[in-house]
């Protein structure tokens, strides 16, 4: 069982495979996980086994902690490449997400103007007007789309609400008019004896068509890198990721692969 639970509201900096030196901003409680997905590969574990007792940090607490950390990093002469909203669950589910983005952009401009503001999101809240507008203000609006198969999503991403519709998610990502970044996890293996391999053509081909339709600024594909709650999951191979990456690039869309 994975036991990675991040401090809150600030953690790191850490080295991100995709983003560089990243200072993490965790809008979820420091003692557990709160997410609109319950992905079987999540390094924070399954939702039911990571129920927090603490509250989410307030907008004021996030701003104060971020400013203190940026002051300390500036004094040490090591500013971050990116301020990344991630951590113990879905950041856009925080009730003050839009205001926190405003604070973060202001503090970034004051202390580390060359740094990017990134949000790692599963896109389940991105259709909400206030969240959508906030995501338009960040540098890297990174939205998850592991597949276009509703059945696969129910099995692997496991949305925590019954109205999840992958078609709505695709339309929402497209509504950012080419400014969003699509992020996709490719993996192999099984869970409870069921195949969860999404590297085959039956998954990749329709996903590519969705990417073409969305026309994002960039695509980031990756595979398992840390411990997962289910130990029968397997990494996609570098060759598999490279082949998928090359097909995205052939459509004229920049794509990176992280092994």
Based on the model shown, name its key terms:
alpha/beta, 21% strand
Structure description:
Helix content is 32%, strand content 21%. It is α/β, with parallel strands linked by helices and 259 residues long. A hairpin with a 3-residue loop joins strand 1 and strand 2. Helix 1 packs parallel to helix 2 and helix 2 runs parallel beside helix 3. The two termini are 22 Å apart.
Radius of gyration: 18 Å
Helix and strand content put the structural class at: alpha/beta
How large is the share of residues in beta strands? 15-25%
Could you tell me the mean pLDDT?
A: 95
Q: What composes the largest sheet?
A: 8 strands, mixed
How widely separated are the two ends? 22 Å
Number of helices: 7
Please give the order of strands in the largest beta sheet.
1-2-3-4-5-6-9-11
DSSP strand count:
11
Helix content: 25-40%
Low-confidence stretches: none
Write the layout of secondary structure elements.
Elements: E1 10-16, E2 20-26, H1 59-76, E3 82-86, H2 97-111, E4 116-121, H3 129-136, E5 140-144, H4 150-156, H5 166-174, E6 180-185, E7 187-191, E8 194-195, H6 201-214, E9 218-222, E10 233-235, H7 238-250, E11 255-258
Helix pairs in contact: 1-2, 2-3
